[in-house]
Amino acid sequence: MTRWLYALDESDSRVQIEIKHDYETGEDHNFYSVSGGASLVFNREVVGNAHIFRQSRLGTEAICDRVLFDALSAAQLSGPSLRDAADL
Fold first, then answer.
1. Which of 1, 6, 41, 83 has the smallest count of CB within 10 Å of its CB?
2. SS3 label, residue 75
């Protein structure tokens, strides 16, 4: 099971933010784009001990922590495609 979190630290990340209005709720929501490059930073308090999660309103695949990233890289598996979120 992959958890959906709202963990992006907007102030420390370099990411394009687009505000979209939800006409059903009347609320505005931030949507994030990594096209053109990005550097993502996540709040440790929100992520907690999750090794893998999905960021709400970010059009990317699942995000994993450095521990899982390093383990998958060291195992040289052919399935997962890994990119460092600090340098997208």
1. 1
2. helix
The tokens describing 29, both together, are: 């929501």
pLDDT digits (tens, 9 = 90+) for 1-26: 678 999 999 999 999 999 999 999 99
Q: Report pLDDT digits (tens) over 64-78.
A: 888 888 998 899 888
Q: Under a CB-based contact definition with an 8 Å cutoff, are residues 19 and 27 in contact? A: no
What is the model's pTM?
0.78
Give the Cα separation of 45 and 49 in Å (integer). Answer: 9
- Would you say 47 and 54 are in contact if contact means Cβ atoms under 8 Å apart? no
